[in-house]
């Protein structure tokens, strides 16, 4: 995250730096130079068009977009002369096409681009410490809105918006690097601040959800995804991408990829998916199924303090049964249930494998909560783990599943989604 507004951070030993990512300032040999307002505006226009030349009339138009006084051209020429007295005759060049910045200037915009590019390159190599360092250095250059000294007009506004998004992208890259390095408290704090600052950027909610999940806060991770989806619908009238619901399903099923995969790869997959259309798994787009979701929730509420029930969702293929089950599982997690989810095995010779997946998720939750699991029971369940050989268990796996689930349900309200 960058420094506070109106703070100028010097990160280069260049002889003369021109900083326009905020209020325009010049730093020469480490010393901050005080500029007159008109001089700062002229330098800002030249930086905006750098390395191209800018005609005097174009400088006037950028400073006075609604039309300047009759002395506007003379005012620009006087500023150019004053800047040359301050920084040398070569500081601003003059040619047939107008004025341009001379040699010896280092622009913070160029430095930002270079550092952001280095951060991206390091991230692609998996060097997240270097990526974090260069992203942080780029963000330290930003001390306000780009080209702050110029008033809004089409060219300035477009560049200001472009630099705003460059900053947001680099903030996201920094947060991804922090999460990739495994600094989970810092990752959660940074992602939460970023999501609050820009609630319509989906990647920020994905970042927060994954950081929370890796911190052992599964329910809070699902809530972060829900908050992001609600912000998109309520503020922008947009549907979240299908990939957001993919991450939601991965959290619900405790997909190992959430821990073993690089965060950037998970986010790339999620954000590559198109916005969700009418089949989205959100309450307001379940055609004719919102009432069923409410019924499931009411049944679970009634059973929360004790009791056992089975809820069967029926319907033809493509009617949204899986989506409804997933949404019910997400809501149950948010409501305080221990939820495990699995799909039926595609291998007919391993019919109990889904039960193994369910039990494994619950055992992982127990371990995260400091709960001890009987080693003998784990041995009896061994045949159900993916990749195990038939006959690996010491006892009957089916009986072990029943014994474990019964014990778990006595200790925690439990929902199994199959």
Write the layout of secondary structure elements.
Blueprint: E1 16-19, E2 25-28, E3 31-33, H1 37-49, H2 56-63, H3 72-87, E4 92-95, E5 98-101, E6 105-107, H4 108-125, H5 128-139, H6 154-180, H7 184-197, H8 202-214, H9 218-236, H10 242-252, H11 257-260, H12 263-272, H13 290-303, H14 321-334, E7 338-341, H15 353-368, H16 375-380, H17 397-411, E8 414-417
Structure, explained:
- The protein is α/β, with parallel strands linked by helices.
- It has helices at 37-49, 56-63, 72-87, 108-125, 128-139, 154-180, 184-197, 202-214, 218-236, 242-252, 257-260, 263-272, 290-303, 321-334, 353-368, 375-380, 397-411; strands at residues 16-19, 25-28, 31-33, 92-95, 98-101, 105-107, 338-341, 414-417.
- The protein has a four-stranded mixed sheet.
- It is elongated.
- The model is unreliable at 1-13 and 276-287 (pLDDT under 50).
